[in-house]
Amino acid sequence: MRIVLLGAPGSGKGTQAKLLVEKYKIPQMSTGDLLRAEVAAGTDLGKKAKAAMDAGQLVTDEIVLGMIQARLAKPDAKNGFILDGFPRNIPQAQALDAMLARLGQPLQLALLVDVTTDILMKRLTGRRSCGSCGAIYNIYFSAPKTSNKCDKCGSSLTHRSDDNEQTVGKRLGVYQQQTAPLANYYKAQGKLRTVRGVGVVSAIFKNATDIIESQIRPLADVMSKIESAAARQAAKAKAEEAKAKAAAKAAKAAKAAKPIPAAKAKPVVAAKAKPVVKKAAPKKVAPPPKAKAKSRKATKPATKAKKVK
Ligand SMILES: [Zn+2]
């Protein structure tokens, strides 16, 4: 199954992606992970990406698509993938579609994890974490028992500076402007499905898998039927072709075989028969019965020869 996950920062799509990876045994491809892996491996794409990042530039779509294509070629991606964080805009989506079409692996589903802006704001600005034990809280949804104190270890909780309303508002604004139109792009292709990203994680996941099962599985079944029918057809055609080839070969061999043994047989028989007869005749003059039989044979051509003369 080939899926693109869409969702704003704070929508929880990363959590859903991980659960989908576990359930369907297909890799999650996030551009961040791909970038890190390519740079670490020192591939050509990794070097290009690193050069761009070192120069403070954005890694081009071309590089990102190259990395995705390289990742798709790995064996664990043969049953599909979950793309997370790419595409982020329409041109990237178009480039991705073009690449996947070339590979014969078009997207099957764009799954949007939908959460209202109000809730996104609370999720992102309400985050508090414990610097000592790593526990995470949210002052709106999962507040600690004592304000700003960790339930587990009693340490003070910290609020990341970029989790303030202004920064979060900006991030969500960028998402709305750039990524939200992707929903329409995939809707126009008939590939968009939406899952509400609010509530218990397992319930959201259940809804997501229901959508996937109903959208992709039937399509996958149809595709596998078409593919196996095509495979049968191809096998039949191949068998017929092989049969025809074998028949043609046999016919050719037969054609070739007839004149050759004929041409060879006559001289061989003649060459063997004549010397044998010639040699045998003088030697076997003494034993009468055999000599008679052979002499008869020997005389026949002689009479024929006379007739010809
Ligand atoms: Zn703690």
Commentary on this structure:
- The protein has 309 residues and is of the alpha/beta class.
- The chain has a domain at 2-27 and 74-115 and 166-215: P-loop containing nucleotide triphosphate hydrolases (Rossmann fold, 3-Layer(aba) Sandwich), CATH 3.40.50.
- The chain is built from 12 helices and 8 strands.
- The chain has helices spanning 13-24, 31-41, 44-54, 61-72, 90-102, 117-125, 165-178, 180-188, 201-215, 217-257, 259-283, 288-308, and strands at 2-7, 28-30, 81-84, 109-114, 127-130, 136-138, 157-158, 192-196.
- The strands form 2 sheets. Strands 2-3-1-4-8 form a 5-stranded parallel beta sheet, sandwiched between helices. Strands 6-5-7 form a 3-stranded antiparallel beta sheet.
- A hairpin with a 5-residue loop joins strand 5 (127-130) and strand 6.
- Helix 2 packs across helix 4 and helix 11 (259-283) crosses helix 12 (288-308).
- The protein is elongated, with a radius of gyration of 40 Å.
- The protein starts with a strand and ends with a helix.
- Residues 262-274, 276-281 and 290-309 have low confidence and may be disordered.
- Bound molecules: zinc ion.
- Zinc ion binds next to loops.
